[in-house]
Amino acid sequence: MNRVDSDVVFQSYGRCCNSEQFFIDFYDHFMGSSEEIRALFRNTDMSAQRHLLRNGIMQLVLHARGMSDTKLKALGESHSRSGYNIRPEWYDLWLSALLTTLRQHDPEFDDSVSQAWQRAIGPGIDCIRRAY
Ligand code: HEM
């Protein structure tokens, strides 16, 4: 991860995160990717969840910019086998849904922006996943 990636990602997220539709589309893609994932959100207030995710992605972006991993470790705990029991392989579907949604919403999205996202937030996602 380098500063350039995190600047690219920060700006890309800035072009997307003010739109509620971005988060609606993210959960459509994410829940559309697996029946099991859809089932996990059966009783979830999705409007509240969209706001929580807006903040969660910001935590990943800030981690790429050098913020401590305390908040991500807390997310790792809530998603672990003693919490929501989110299986490690599901994070790949999460990242795919995010990249699909970014491609749809960020007018400047291209392969180099996509790679910057993956390099920048990969370590933060691993931090959450590892807590399983
Ligand atoms: C809740 C972020 C990956 C399923 C949450 C919350 C945040 C969040 C901020 C609310 C705070 C909390 O309860 O701790 C993220 C981030 C992810 C990620 C940043 C990727 C790195 C996943 C994956 C799944 C998932 C892969 C499922 C396959 C859930 C569920 C809840 C939740 C079921 C609780 C919903 C409820 O309250 O009903 N997530 N999450 N998350 N997340 Fe994630």
From TrEMBL:
Pfam families in the cross-refs: Globin
InterPro entries registered for this protein in UniProt: Globin, Globin-like_sf, Globin/Proto, Mb-like_M
CDD domains the UniProt entry points to: Mb-like
Domain Globin: start-end pairs: 1-132
Chain segments annotated as transmembrane: none
Keywords from the named record: Heme, Iron, Metal-binding, Oxygen transport, Transport
Keyword rRNA-binding attached: no
Similarity remark: Belongs to the globin family.
Protein's name according to its UniProt entry: Globin domain-containing protein
Classification lineage: Bacteria, Pseudomonadati, Pseudomonadota, Gammaproteobacteria, Cellvibrionales
